[in-house]
Fold:
Amino acid sequence: MRILILGGDGYLGWPTSMYLAGQGHQVMVVDNYLRRQICLEQGLTPLIAVPDLHQRCQQWLKSHGSRIEFAVGDVTDYPFLLGIFQRFEPEVVIHYAEQPSAPYSMMGYREARLTVSNNLISTLNVAYAVRETNPACHIIKLGTMGEYGTPNIDIEEGFIDLEHKGRSDRLLFPRQAGSLYHTTKIQDTDLLYFYVRVWGLRVTDLMQGPVYGLMTPEMGDDPKLFTFFNYDEQFGTVLNRFMVQAVAGIPLTVYGKGGQTRGYLNLMDVLQCVRLAVEKGAAPGEMQIFNQFTETFSVNQLAEKVQRVGGAMGLDVQIKSLPNPRKELEEHYYNPVHKALTDLGLTPNLLTDEVIAGMLTQAQRYRDAIQPAFIQPKTQWK
Ligand code: USQ
Structure:
């Protein structure tokens, strides 16, 4: 299939591009290097320096013999995006091209505005470009489990069947996000669901939990193909941060009581889930919503796992509770359904001790590059 990947330079976008190209699809990547730009502005560097798309795509061609096309540009620039759709004629578009950091979105007005305008306009542009060029093109949108928040009831997969005063209906599951970033993802879902109902677009919304991992098989041992791996407060997800902290001898930064529970998944499973969504497709006028994670853990459970496995490897891993910079429940009920992707054939790579040891070993190879100044959280929600 011809698959267009928006945001194909990022932590998830680049591994997805290689994976789908490796599966024999014709892949084109678009990115405006927003994440790299924000990192430059904030003085943040990834754990492993990775080349730009020119070099990455060249390296992929050299080592794997298949071509990944790319264009550097901004998805919020509609004429640019439309030109890409007209030229490449995608059958599937995967939309990762968003500002993905919750802390960044809470820094101040400038960052809030960038998050809202980038995330909403990019989604609007995708809907319009698909409608204008090929309404049959399947839109796969990366959403987030954080749209649901942490309600005191089970979280369904996208929709909920409700009975109210003797009548019933199937409605979007209630959303209540914990950051501005997560709120923009709710608005993305609403935008796409609107155009599904009005224009009959085909959409899959992947409600993903925090991802962990550095490596996928396509990278091999070639640093030029590695992913953009952050461990700082802004772009590092919690388990990725803990791995780096453990290796650097910095106490693991548990925010508050550490009872915050989320649905996690391995980077390799992100690729599987996206492939399953590509293969499944969506009917005209259908909005599918899949909850994309494999296991739930509290922050304390993650910290204890890293401490235990790190200890067995000879690392002295301490855990330290910090005042929570975020406004979130620190002890709560959490029971989200995640059946759709399993039914489609997802075979999870679970968070075993071996997986943790593998990540720690990989982080140890880059120990000298770790910047302790990136670790402590600075962005307050209040
Ligand atoms: N946390 C800590 N210590 C840390 C970092 C985080 O205790 O050093 C806690 C947070 O307070 C939160 C939990 O760990 O309760 C998860 O935080 P996170 O930074 O791993 O995840 P989050 O900010 O929610 O965002 C990440 C991605 C985002 C994605 C989301 C999925 O950056 O793009 O949408 O995970 S989800 O969390 O399910 O909404």
Remarks:
- DSSP finds twelve helices and 14 strands in the chain.
- The first strand starts at residue 2 and ends at 6.
